[in-house]
Amino acid sequence: MEATSYIILIGSTLLIASILTSYLALRIGTPLLLIFLSVGLLAGEDGIGGIQFNDLGSAFLIGSIALAVILFESGLDTKLSSYKAAAWPALTLATAGVAITTGIVGVVAHYLLDLEWIEALLVGAVVSSTDAAAVFLLLRVGGITIRDRVRSALEIESGSNDPMAILLTIMLVEAALHGWGTPLELLSEFLMQIVGGAALGVLGGFLLAGFINKTKMEPGLYPVVTLTFALFVFAGTNVLGGSGFLAVYVMGLVAGNVRLRGAPGLRRFHSGLTWLSQIVMFVMLGLLATPHEFGTIALPAIGLALLLIFVARPLAVWLCLLLFRFTANETTFIAWVGLRGAVSMLLALVPVLGDLPGGQVIFNTAFIVVIVSLLVQGWTIGPMARWLKLLIPPRRGPVERVELELPGEADQELVAYTVRDKSPAARGQRLPRFARPSLVIRDGHVVPLHKARPYQPGDMVYLFTPPDQLPLIDKLFASSRALDQDDREFYGDLVLSPDATVGQIAEMYGLPMSLANAHLTLRDLLRNEFGSACEPGDRIRMGGVELIVRDMEDGKILSVGMALEPTPVSKPRVPLFLRPRQLGERVMTWWGRRSFQRWQRREKRRERLTGPTRTGIPSAEPKETQ
């Protein structure tokens, strides 16, 4: 009994230490996952705590459960609209990108770590996938406002590339222990993992939603049901030969995009459980590490980490995104947000559990790679977005939304807005009945409603409203983009109706146009250019102005901006990340300049030997004839 109490006391102390240090870390911008890992290292056998934890089997079991919980919550919190914007590029990164990264890192690891080829490729496989917890945490909690397509690509990739890395790791361990199978066997196993995992995930998601919506239980049981369903699908899919990690992510994605009873409470529960899972997993892996063994491989491992950050990941991202409409700076940012985390360290346990000769070297290398990744990339995501000029103005909308579980079909939300300067509410405009506040807070104090008018900039107003009224309420409390300097620079100087035709706009502002486009509305013109991937901020040139997508709702363009002075084309910060046409133009320009310089040198040598010639370009000072 006393030993059990000591274990619980030590575990709770580590959790409290992680939570307290994470509060301080948020204030100074330190990556939280690095803090959790540091707590485990300090408490481990080489740290000040001296705790010896060497149970690899338990660590893998706990880590797998924690990762399943994290992936389920990631899917639950991802909207299908994100897939409409960035599904194909993200899935290409999650499959081909993982394979390319594995190959590049594996080849270099073979020579740097002096490992057999299979073990070297295992090093590449375990560090090939980005960490969903790290990426979601930095993008969502960090408050980095970048374009939806870039954010969606990163979040979908991080949530869906784990199965590919897991599959490669397991196949390589099996090959090291039992030899390679036939190509047909490898292909069938790959398809079973991917197709089986996706199919069982979809089935599990619909079964979970149907069960919750059709049964009446105590409210406290619904979170328990979702958790047990998620773990059941995860384990059952693994037993049947599919990818349990893919299945649990897809299950969360399906359940999170249908109407679910008690959805607000379920999301809060799984959000808290995900935080707990991240802390437990990183602290446990920190306890498991033995830093005194890092000395012999520290330099090669750091070299591999830098290779992964600056060569392997960027090259894989560039090759995978060549066919998609990402700018060079967006490609650079996606390449940089390739954080490695708990997934890499968890996969690195597989070779150790399989008793491979180089298993411990693989785990120690993966551990160092994760630390370097969190140190180099985790601290610089925000500065990198600013350097690449990818930050966009925050969207208008409520500061806070609270979904309410009401009897019957009542569909209401409690929303909170901050009254903005120069907004209709601040200018004294009478609000419609559906937008009248239920509570007003001014300077930290509740103000009676009959004394609150006129509303002042900075007031926090709370009101009940159906979700479909939110776009109208946004316009009443938020500042007009036409009056906001930052928004005007990004969204344009004028606001146009998307139903106006190209011909009408061209005639009104004296702009050139193509006769074939004259009958198109601005909405159709932008849709033809950007397709289903259209999002706020997309822009096209029309003569000397730019047309910009300003506001959208449910995929429909609500307003179009016009920039009277088109934004100067920002030069790629990293010239390597160019589209094929741009890269070809630069290569041809360089080759042409080089060829011209060679021709000039040949001509100068010829002039020194034979005198100037009248063919080609004459010399600057021809000799006078005698």
Short description:
With 626 residues, the chain is of the alpha+beta class. It has 23 helices and 9 strands. It has 4 domains: 54-387, Na+/H+ antiporter like fold; 400-478, 2-Layer Sandwich (Alpha-Beta Plaits), CATH 3.30.70; 490-563, Uridine Diphospho-n-acetylenolpyruvylglucosamine Reductase, domain 3 (2-Layer Sandwich); 579-610.
Would you mind describing this structure in some detail?
By secondary structure, this protein is of the alpha+beta class. It has four domains: 54-387, Na+/H+ antiporter like fold; 400-478, 2-Layer Sandwich (Alpha-Beta Plaits), CATH 3.30.70; 490-563, Uridine Diphospho-n-acetylenolpyruvylglucosamine Reductase, domain 3 (2-Layer Sandwich), CATH 3.30.465.10; 579-610. 59% of the residues lie in helices and 8% in strands. The chain contains 23 helices and nine strands. The chain has helices at residues 2-28, 32-43, 56-76, 80-112, 117-126, 132-141, 148-160, 162-178, 183-214, 221-239, 244-256, 263-288, 298-320, 328-336, 342-353, 359-376, 381-387, 449-452, 470-477, 485-491, 502-509, 522-530, 580-610; strands at 400-403, 413-418, 439-442, 445-447, 460-465, 494-496, 539-542, 545-553, 556-563. The chain has a five-stranded antiparallel sheet. Strands 6-9-8-7 form a four-stranded antiparallel sheet, with helices on both faces. A hairpin with a 2-residue loop joins strand 8 and strand 9. It is globular and about 75 Å long. The protein starts with a helix and ends in a 16-residue tail after the last helix. Residues 615-626 have low confidence and may be disordered.
